[in-house]
Each structure stands twice: as structure tokens, then as C-alpha cells.
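--- STAGE predict ---
source: upstream dedup step, 1 unique chain passed
mode: sequence only
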Amino acid sequence: GQFQIPVDQGKIELFNSIVSNAHIGVFTGTLDVTILGVMYNLSNDGGGGVVIATGATFLNCATGVDMRKYQAPTIPGQPAPLNQSRFTNTRFVVDRPNLSALYPFKRHVRLDRVNGVLFRQCDFRNDVDELEYQTAGSAALGYGIESYESLFQVLPGCSILLNVGQQCPAESLLPSTFTGLDHGINAIGGPNAQRNFTVDAARFTDNICGVYTSGVIGFVARRNTFQFGNRNVPLTNSLEANWLQAHRGLYSFKGSRFTVMDNTLLQSGTKPTEGIVIGFSGEEDEIVFRNNASNLVQAYIGEGQCANDTLTASQGLWFKCNTNQHNTTNFRSRIVTGGGPAQFQTIRTNQGSIFPVVVPADNQFDQDPTGRDFVNDGCDYNAISYWWADPVSPYKPEYTDCVSEDNDVNGVPIERSPSNCLTRTRERAVMPTTTEGLVQQAEAEKLEYANQRYLYDQLMDGGNTDEVLLEISSAWPQEAWDLRAYLLSKSPFLSVEVLQEAVNKAYFPMAMKAEVCIANPDATKKDGFMKWLQYDALFPMPEHLLASIEASWDQKTYRTNLENALAMHRSELVQSLNQVTEILTGDTVYDPTDSLRAVWQVLRSPGARYAEALLLMQQGQLNEAHAVVSAIPTEHELRPKELDERGRMLQVIALMQAVKASDRSEAELTVAEQNNLAALVEGQLDRPSVWAQNLLCWFYDRCTVPPSGGDETPKSAKPQRRPLVVENAPMLAVQPNPATTWATFTITLDHEPVNAMVVVRDAQGRITHQELVNGPEVQLVWDTRQMAQGLYSVELLEDGKRLQAERLIVQP
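--- STAGE serialize ---
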């Protein structure tokens, strides 16, 4: 009635009450039929009802609380209200094995497309002795909270009374707890809503995984304690099939715009452990910030594609201000089997930034020679540049694999700002604290990013990659010197694609190819270029030239600075908007959907357009969502795989439009529709595919296991190339012979040369050219275009002694 709050809603209030031994303790939704007290055909779309539980206990229920989809009525011009269900100081406990053959324990709380539920100072537990689970394994441990497309918050209580607006002191927090479960929180996103969750200052103890997420945009996990590795049961949940029996603190698959900060992760027991695992976050600019990990096997992992595959240096996942104590591996960029091309599987290759302001990554390392500080599985594809500032201990990663550690910029030491780790964004005179201030800050960063990106795009390949490729493909041998000058004039802004075309160019001297590569260090250290150069190029590069190219990586170019500037401005933009998202989703009264859409419109990226489309679908505006996704190519030049992703999203939206037109929901797909959807997204890892896979799993038990994990133990050292050994190989080789426009002199010595040089003499014995040999394996180029035709001798001298001589014919 009119005096009830909320109005016209079924409502149950539980004070110090116990609900026990139920199939479902409390169900808010529509029941099709009830026979002898047993509920059948529970509707997926009939929702509503408010649950207020204070000091209550849900004991030995197969499911404690099950809440189904419900959209509260709205008043035009006013924000939509959130679900007003609240659980305060409530216990969810199972302490008896084998509850029922028909209804085994599955989860304490199930949230199905629910928009706003608050859990404060609640306890979720499985207290059954683990000996009972040696056969059934982790799949039988159940979840604390299991959700699909739902907005909810898990918050602490406070032991003292607070004034309005006052924050509870850390020492007075009363945490929510998750103990002995398979997953403490298991939250997945779908293609029809952009809802997320917040878990703050909770305690996760002896769970196989504390927080598991898939396809969730904008979730928040902060100030939590994860103590794990001590649940001695086999991993039988299919979602954990690729974990190699490792327990995890927090795992995010295909999530973005998240906040993961100020968490503590601790080893408990003897099971292998992985602290924070971020998988396939894509091109989004994410930061794992200011967490602390102790005694873990692997502490912080980015796996799969966690960077933009064309702007790998500036867009993607990075780790900032995290600490390590006695972890076997501190950080790892991991390649995943089944995760797509290995060259795209990397975190952001610039970890930290040095331009236009210095922002060192500021992680603290174990520096233990028996472990690894930073492991890069993609050594053959993407080299990682890590920026640190003094002191060496604990800020320098001492024991690394394929990670360059830099604390200076061409000789100028990096200095740390005293407030570098106070916020995820860089130090400013005044830090915004309101949504309006943060949005203004984001707009300013967007403008700076746009200016830098314009300059970068104009410089890359001279602003026209196709034109450069045409120039290379049409060059004739006699124009090799002109081609060299042309390519060097556009360095260091040549792309990997252009360098590959140059290397594959016939009759272009190998030394010239190496010279061009050396002039473009930012390109040669990514996208698997070095591995391609060594094994897959039409003319593979010799070992000594490969070493020279790798040595060039220590030089920081103007392109390095530009890519660092892009990385910083983009990260600042995204992190400012992430903070706005945190504030908006922290509202416990009103639906933030409209405000969130305005935030996403500030960010002009394909990822933001997909998020905006989900918000429109959440509001039932499917035609508008279709229009937003359709328009993406007008804002961005999409590559083939991005066009495929957009096409899949449009097909998913079209399916939802057809379902809605027949007065059904995604929970009522026909078998044919399910099959078509499964075929559309099978084997795909893009956003709409993961959301559609989650839909099929949630409603139809047609689940796809995320690709995850890798080698059980990271490699202990970067494999060194072994130079080819050729018996009786000449110390001096001259090619081509005869020469028309140029000749190369390849020197191969078994020692460091002393006062060595190559001398060219004409038929009269006059010296026409000489050049120093500064290494045991060197290739030199001699321009013969101005030389008279005839016979020349080429001598290799060391300390005045002739080691070898060859004849060379020069022709016009």
C-alpha cells in the first residue's frame, strides 16, 4: 500500500532470524507452479520483491537467496530507483555435507539481472570438512555470490557510530567475509546490460578463487584481503580447467575499466597460488595499483592480449606501485595456449612513463636470485620497457626475462615524485574530488592525447604507410642508396610492416637493412619482429646484425617520447573516468545508467561504444544500441578483426531485437537460436563473443572455458641465440661480385679485433677506400657507383697484418 516503502512491493524483513534446510531460502520472482511445497519452472524474468535481512542466518540451504530480473517503474524526469534489498550482518553458512541428492549446495546468493543489492558486514561460508570433497572437488564447494548482469555492492560495517559523510577509520572496519568456497564472488557480464559490482574491504580465506569475473565492465575490488592456497581439494570446476591446480586471489577475464587496488594477497597452505590474474583486457588502459603480495608462486599476471596490437607501447595493462615479499615470480606477461596469435599476447610494453612527465612504475621487487622479478613470455615478440627510479633496492627489477630496466633517459636519471603512489593519476597541484572535476580533467587529457596522436600518426611512415610500401616495392637495385636515404629520413617512425617490406627487398644490402632497423628501435622490439627477422624473413638477418639491432633498444628516440606521452595522456584520461564510474556506481539509491552513458561518451574508443551500447540495451533501447555500434567505423578506422567483432555485436543485437519483438527475453531462446548464437561466437575472444558465451552458460548450461594459465613455472632466463658455426668459414666475404652499385664486406672473426680494417686498392695498388672493423662480426657497405670499372683487391688487416684478401670486379 501507499505507506509501505517501497510502494507496492512484496517485502520480507528478517531480524535475527534463521532460514535453514531449504531448496531456496528466499526467492524474489515468479513461480509458475507449486506442488507439495516444491517449486517448479521458476521464471527467469518475473522479478521484484524486497529482502531486508539484519542479523539473519541462512543455514544449509542449496541456495540461500535467489533474486530474479526486475526493472522498477520510473517517473519521467527522475532517476530510476535501485533495488532496495539489503543484507546487514547476515550469515550464509553450509556446515553439513550432502544436503540433498536433488538439491546439493550451489551458492549462497544468486543474482540474475538485479540492479542494486547491498551486502554489508555479511559472512559467506562453507564450513564442511574438505575430506568430504575429495571426489566431487572444487565444483561442489559452491559460490558465495553468483551473479549475471547484476549491480551489487559488498561493503564493510563499522564498529563506531559515524556522522553523516564521515568515513569509517580502517581500524574500525568490520569486513564481509568469504570462507572455504570455490569462488567467493563469481560475477559474469552479458550482452544486454552494463552492470558491475563493488567489493570493498572484504576478507577472502581459503577459497579456490576469491573473486572471479568474466566480461564485467567497471568492477571495483579494493582494500580486500585474500588468503588462499589452503583448500585441499582437486579442481573440478570446468572454469578452472586451465589453472594447473593453482588457486587465485582475483581473476578477471575480458574485463575492462576496473579498479583493482590496495588489496593484500597472502599464501596460506601449500597449493600453488597466483595473486591477481588479468586476462585479455584488450586495448583498454588498465592499472593494477598499490596491491601487496606475499609468499605467492606468482603474484601479478597479465595474460593474453592486454594491449592494443597497433599501439602496444601506449595502450594496455600496466602495474603501478605494487609490492612483493618472498614471491617466486613477482610479475609476468603470460602467453596463453588458445589465446590467439602470440605476437599480440602482451601487456603494455611501456611499464611507466618518462614523457612529458616522469611517472615511474614504482613497483617494489623481491630481487631474489632464486626467483624472477619480471617475466615476459613474449620475448620473441614484444620487449617490455620498465621505467624505475632510485634507489635500486627495492625498485629495480634485477632478475628479469626480456624486460629492459631503465632509470634514465639517454643518461639523465629519472626522479620520483613524492606523491607518485598516492593516486592512479599523476601528481597535480589540485586533485579533483567531484565527478564534474574528474570529467573536466579527462576532457583536458583527451585534448592532449588527440594532439600527440595527430603528430604521431603524421610521423609514422611519413603519414602514409601505403606510399612507403610502394616506394620499397618499386625500388631497383641501383637505387639502393636512395632507398636507404628515403627510409632513414622517415626514421624512427617506420612501422613493423614497412621494415618487413624493406628486409624482404631483394638486392637491398643486408647492412643497409640493419642500418634502417637500428634507426627504428621502437618498432624492432615489438610484434615479434626480431623472431620474424631471424627465422621467417625472405633474407634472414645474420646473428651479429641481430645483436646490433637489439643493442639499439637502449637508445630513447623522439618516437619513444611520443609513445610515452600517448601512454600517459591516455592512461590519465581513462583513470579519471574510472574514478567517475566508481563514484556513480557507489550510489545505493538511484540507477546510474544515464550518468554512466554520459561518461562513456567522453571516451571516443570502440570499447566505449560497446559499453554505451550495453547501457542502451539495459534500458530496452535496442535500436539505439544497434545504431551506436553501426556507427563505429565513422569514428575509427577498423582492422579486419575489429570489423568482425563489430559484425558479431550487430548480430547479437539483431537476435535480441527479434526476441524482444516476440515478447520474449534472452532466457527464452529457442534451441535453434541457441545453436546459431553458439556457432556465431565459437572460438572467438572478442567482447560480444564472451558476453554471448556467458549468456549461453548462465541460462542454458552451454559453457565455454576461458583460455588461461600457461607454463606451470616461468622460464628462468631468456634463451640466448647461438651463432651458427661453420667450419673453415672465410674471415672475409665480398658480395655481390661483380658489383655495379655497391658491395658488402662481411667479416667474421673468432676474437675481438685489434686495430682491424678493410682496405680496398685499385689495380695500381692505390687505396680507394678503407674502413675500421669494430667487432668480430661486422658487415660493411661500399658505394661503387663513382668508382671506375675494373679489378680491385679487398684486404682484411689487423694491427698491420693482412689476414685475408679477395678480388672484386666493378662494372658499370
